[in-house]
Design brief:
This protein has 534 residues and is of the alpha/beta class. The protein folds into three domains: 227 residues, beta-sandwich domain of Sec23/24 (Immunoglobulin-like, Sandwich), CATH 2.60.40; 46 residues, N-terminal domain of TfIIb; 218 residues, von Willebrand factor, type A domain (Rossmann fold), CATH 3.40.50. It is 37% helix and 24% strand. The strands form four sheets. Strands 2, 4, 8, 16, 18, 20 and 21 form a seven-stranded mixed beta sheet that branches. Strands 12-11-10-9-13-14-15 form a seven-stranded mixed beta sheet, with helices on both faces. Strands 1-3-19-17 form a four-stranded antiparallel beta sheet, covered by helices on one side. Helix 8 links the parallel strand 14 and strand 15. Helix 8 runs parallel beside helix 15. The longest helix is centred in the last third of the chain and has 24 residues.
Length: 534
């Protein structure tokens, strides 16, 4: 964790400067791959807020209370049975909470799938005829070949949709066909049907069925309309019924127009709510969703479907038929270093978390001591936390703790704890002199990307321009070494948005903005520096 104040200072009271140059913390997710210290012990945590005890000096032994420590974040008195042994030292500790495969299921509980479930939900409606479907089939075949070598234990499943939905649990079993209008129009009825019937099928690891799957995919052909909502829901409900985690690839070239989840005509309003709810269900159940929209000038409502990838940590693509090869290649190479990632920020009551960027919009307004699930993350992403000084600080030393609970690539459950102590600073000039604006500039770029993704180009540019204006006023105080790259970041991002606007003239505007905005909302400091070097 890096702080925007080079010498770990925070302004001692609210002011214009504390608003214009707030304290920013950078959390690079690549840090989850390695930790300076890793221990396999249960952390001692506050029973009220969950803050981890990091300093043995905070533990007291009182004749009346016994051994205890007072939580520096919520004030709770936590009684301990005995004096703890040596606590791990340092400001960055990894606690291994549970090794993969060691969790014992309660007796009688039905087990889920043994391997991660990978499901492709593919549009085979009439508009996909010709080159589009052929390109999709070719790339699915190549992906399956790669899985058979590099992800042998994974279980693959195929869901296709047009006017009806077909679910292929295995290429050696007859597909489950959903054509009943009642099921296509009722999310509740479809869920009950899936729960009742899906467990009689026997999905197998891809290594056992690889060649058969290739034949099944190659045999796909186009027909009918676009029952996208029921197809997506069926795929998600199977994950829930089989108690599986994994990934969904949703690919479409048109608007959902059959059954629930419609995004045409009078169903648009309800459809928006359906996809956001599906996104939340996937987030809560450790299901990553990637969305590929195939088109150009045709509107695919990716501003709605994009919630699925935004909430869960997946990717959103808006590509032409010719770009499908590179898109599938990019998806195949993506590796998650953290899944089911939950973040919690601890501060004293006089400092609030203003917002967090680089994660889904549903979690950006997180409050202090509130845990949020941010889905899965890759090593090239990072989050930024902005702090707001609510009132004059009570002491000279201000503790801050950030926790990230997650499962690593091997399935081990871990808790990463970052801690630092901030120094209250009364002198605004000294605070500005030791302020690194690069972190704030990248955070504002992420926020501008979030706004741009919603179609508000003017506000996105305003966020960047106003930040640049603040930096220009303080340039001499920052020093050229820190000011120059921060200013360059902002200027180049403003040019990037101008480029997007020109490109958008030949694209479906809402879908293009959603795709471009989501990518910019996930820009990291390293990514921005690499972009400027090109």
């Amino acid at each position: 964790m890096k702080i925007s104040s080079i010498d770990n200072k925070i302004l001692a009271k609210p002011s214009k400067i504390s608003k214009e140059l707030p304290l920013i913390a950078q959390i690079p997710f690549k840090d989850l791959e390695r930790a300076p210290a890793s221990v396999e012990i249960t952390p001692i945590a506050c029973k009220t807020c969950g803050a981890v005890l990091m300093d043995i000096g905070a533990v007291k032994n009182d004749a009346n209370l016994g051994v205890y420590f007072t939580c520096q974040f919520c004030g709770t008195i936590n009684k301990l049975g005995a004096m703890p042994g040596q606590l791990p030292g340092g400001g960055d500790i990894e606690f291994v909470l549970e090794r993969a495969g060691t969790k014992v299921e309660p007796e009688g509980k039905k087990k889920g799938l043994s391997g991660e479930l990978v499901t492709s939900v593919i549009d085979i409606s009439g508009s996909m005829s010709g080159g589009k479907l052929e390109a999709v089939k070719h790339n699915l075949v190549e992906s399956l070949k790669d899985m058979a070598v590099n992800a042998k234990s994974s279980v693959f499943m195929l869901v296709t949709f047009e006017s009806n939905v077909e679910i292929f649990f295995s290429p050696k079993e007859t597909a489950m066909v959903i054509s009943d209008d009642k099921l296509l129009r009722s999310e509740k009825d479809l869920k009950a049907y899936i729960e009742k019937n899906c467990k009689k099928f026997d999905p197998q690891p891809v290594e056992k069925l690889g060649d058969s799957w290739l034949d099944q995919v190659r045999a796909l052909y186009t027909k009918g309309s676009t029952a996208l909502g029921p197809a997506l829901a069926a795929g998600v409900f199977i994950f829930l019924a089989r108690k599986a985690s994994g990934r969904i690839l949703l690919l479409t070239d048109g608007l959902a127009n059959v059954g629930f989840g419609r995004l045409e005509g009078d169903g648009t309003r309800e459809g928006r709510g359906f996809y956001e709810n599906m996104a939340k269900v996937c987030l809560e159940n450790n299901i990553v969703v990637d969305v590929i929209g195939v088109g150009g000038g045709n509107e695919l409502a990716l501003d709605v479907l994009g919630k699925l990838s935004e909430y869960t940590g997946g990717e959103l693509f808006f590509v032409t038929e010719a770009e499908l090869d590179s898109t599938f290649s990019e998806l195949t190479q993506r590796q998650f270093i953290g899944k089911d990632v939950k973040v919690k920020v601890f501060t004293t009551k006089d400092i609030e978390v203003e917002q967090i960027s680089g994660i889904s919009s549903v979690a950006q307004k997180t409050k202090r001591l509130e845990e949020v699930n941010i889905g899965s993350v890759t090593a090239d992403r990072e989050a930024f936390i902005e702090f707001n000084v609510k009132q004059k600080l009570e002491g000279d030393q201000v503790p801050v703790q950030v926790q990230m609970e997650y499962k690593d690539a091997a399935g081990n459950k871990k808790l990463r704890v970052f801690k630092t102590t901030l120094k209250a600073e009364e002198n605004e000039a000294d605070y500005k002199k030791n302020y690194d604006p690069k972190l704030m500039s990248v955070m504002r770029i992420q926020q501008a990307g979030e706004v741009y993704g919603k179609g508000d180009t003017v506000q996105a540019q305003q966020i960047l321009a106003q930040t640049k204006q603040v930096f220009e006023a303080e340039r001499a105080m920052f020093g050229e070494e820190n000011a120059a790259p921060a200013m360059e970041f902002l200027a180049s991002e403003m040019e990037q948005i101008d480029d997007f606007e020109r490109e958008k003239l030949t694209k479906a505007k809402a879908s293009f903005s959603a795709m471009a905005g989501q990518k910019r909302a996930r820009v990291s400091l390293d990514k921005k520096m690499k972009e400027l070097k090109k």
